Every structure is written in C-alpha cells, then in structure tokens.
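ok new one. same drill as before - structure tokens go in, u give me an amino acid for every spot. 330 of them this time. try not to just spam alanines like last time pls lmao
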C-alpha cells in the first residue's frame, strides 16, 4: 500500500507519499481499500499540529473516506469483505488502504456513489446536528449560512431547505453566491460587496424585512460574527461550529440578553461519541435523504490521491467550493 505519511506535523510540506506494509485488521477493525477521501478543514489543522485531536507521529492524515472492506478483524460481525462503506476515523484516509475501527464505518446502499460518500459524513452530520438537533429548526424560519460555499455551508443550505426553511447564503464572492443559489438558497449576501459591519447589517435587515434571521450557521468565526449576531431575530439561535476564518470572535454577552437569543455550541464529533445511537439514527436519515435526491455533496473537483498537496493548497487559498475529493486508481 501507499500513504501520505506525516512524521512531523509542521505543515503540508512535511507529508511524504510512501510505500508502507498493508495492515492486518486487529480486534474490532476492518481493512479498507480506499476508493476516495475528501479534504476537510481539520485535515489541514492536524498536519499543522493545530487541531484539538493530536495523533502521535508518524500518522496518515485524512479523516473521511469511502471504499470496500477487504478483511475483518476478530469480533467484527456487522461488516463483511466486499461491502462498500463510508468511514470517518480522524486519520488514515489519504492512502490506498487503512485499518479502521469497524464502529466508525457505515455500510452503504448499492446506489450510493463512493465519491459522494467520501464527502458526506462530516459536513452533513454537522449540518443536521446543528440545524435539526441543536437549533430545533422549524419550517418557515429563516436561516443565515455564513461561509455558504464551503463544505459545511453547502450541506447546511440543503439540510435547511429540506427542513422547510428560507435560506440566506452569505459568501465572499459573486460566484460563491451563485453556487449557493444553484443548490437552493433563496437569497444571497456577498460580503465582498458589503464589507463594512454596518453595510452587512443593513443588507441582512433588508433581506429579512427588518426581522433578522432565526438561525445563524457559523463555521467561519472572524469579523462577521458580531454584526451577524447583532442582526439576529428575537429568540434566535446562533450556531457556533468552527473558526475557518481564523480569529475566534469575542462577543459581548449583552447581545444574547437583548435579543433573548442563544449561543449554541455544535461539536458533532463529541455528540457522535457520547450519543452513538442518536448519531447512527441521524446518519441513516441522511443516507435516505441522499438516495431520495434531497441532498448531494457539492464536489469542487476530484484529484488523484497523489496530488494531495494541490488539494491542501486550494483549501489554504480558500479556492474550494464544497469539497475536494482525492481518488485512488485501483
């Protein structure tokens, strides 16, 4: 097998494509032949030693992937060789093969495309957990999605629309706004045009007839968090998902008080660990939504697995719309 090995997490330049022994699955593990893996923002942080989960080097990055079970370890009964699966294991995906914990792999229906499957679990589970579970989104409510053209953003647009919400997609360019509308957003807010906090708030007020959004999806953080929160509707819910924009905002605590609004933390990975049955049920629902055509991952491009550094460069330069997927030639 071959894999991108990180022996020293000092950045993408430290990764090396190397030949390694194909692993034998241990108790509770399966050997996966990887068809495709997607790049998520934590995959960038982890090779820079900036993510909360810090694997011991050397390790193979790549948290999310799909492929086929080739062997099962002792104690594994729900998966069989030859079965197609999608896995989210934190590491191991940027390779041709990996030994994965069987309980982190979900069997896929035959009609589930493996490129889509590799770009599915993290963003759609995060979006569903945020909007349906944590925000209790109701039909007819208005959702503002910040960073709308990213992985979590595009998934949130689709989940919110299927739940019956009106969606305003905020993104940093006209083409990202256009993409958001193509996948279902009702309105867009281009913050390359509305750069000042006051202009951003005025446009959001116009788009909501002065009421403000009921739910704000924020995987970005940074300078827009405060003006967005200042615009939230009465009893609004502000979903704190991540800080892809860099700085962690420092919101004045009088703001939730004045609006009767909630700051809601969204940590899907911890939810999956603490509430595995609820998470499994959610993933089953999302798989059905996919098969019914309600949701579909936005794939910016598909690259050979050997071109992983190019994928990282696109992400670092904020050139990705949706997700980049790496495929193996088998």
């Amino acid at each position: 097998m071959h894999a991108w090995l990180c022996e020293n997490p000092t950045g993408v330049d430290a990764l090396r494509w190397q030949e390694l022994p194909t692993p034998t699955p241990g108790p509770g593990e399966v050997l996966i032949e990887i068809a495709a893996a997607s790049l998520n923002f934590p995959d960038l942080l982890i090779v820079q030693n900036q993510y909360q989960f810090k694997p011991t080097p050397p390790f193979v990055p790549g948290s999310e992937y799909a492929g086929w079970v080739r062997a099962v370890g002792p104690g594994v009964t729900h998966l069989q060789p030859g079965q197609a699966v999608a896995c989210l294991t934190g590491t191991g995906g940027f390779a041709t093969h990996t030994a994965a914990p069987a309980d982190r792999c979900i069997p896929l229906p035959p009609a589930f495309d493996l490129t889509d499957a590799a770009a599915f679990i993290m963003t759609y589970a995060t979006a569903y957990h945020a909007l349906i579970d944590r925000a209790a989104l109701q039909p007819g409510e208005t959702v503002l999605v910040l960073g709308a053209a990213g992985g979590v953003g595009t998934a949130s647009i689709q989940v919110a629309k299927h739940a019956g919400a009106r969606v305003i997609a905020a993104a940093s360019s006209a083409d990202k706004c256009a993409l958001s509308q193509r996948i279902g957003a009702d309105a867009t807010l281009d913050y390359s045009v509305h750069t000042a906090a006051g202009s951003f708030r005025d446009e959001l007020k116009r788009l909501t007839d002065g009421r403000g959004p009921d739910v704000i999806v924020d995987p970005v953080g940074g300078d827009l968090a405060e003006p967005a929160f200042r615009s939230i509707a009465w009893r609004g819910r502000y979903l704190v998902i991540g800080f892809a924009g860099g700085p962690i905002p420092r919101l004045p605590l009088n703001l939730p008080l004045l609006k009767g609004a909630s700051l809601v933390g969204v940590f899907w990975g911890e939810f999956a660990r603490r509430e595995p049955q609820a998470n499994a049920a959610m993933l089953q629902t999302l798989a059905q939504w996919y098969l019914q055509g309600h949701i579909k991952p936005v794939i910016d491009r598909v690259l050979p697995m050997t071109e992983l550094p190019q994928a990282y460069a696109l992400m670092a330069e904020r050139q990705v719309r949706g997700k980049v997927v790496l495929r193996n030639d088998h």
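The mean pLDDT is 94. and btw The longest helix spans residues 276-291.
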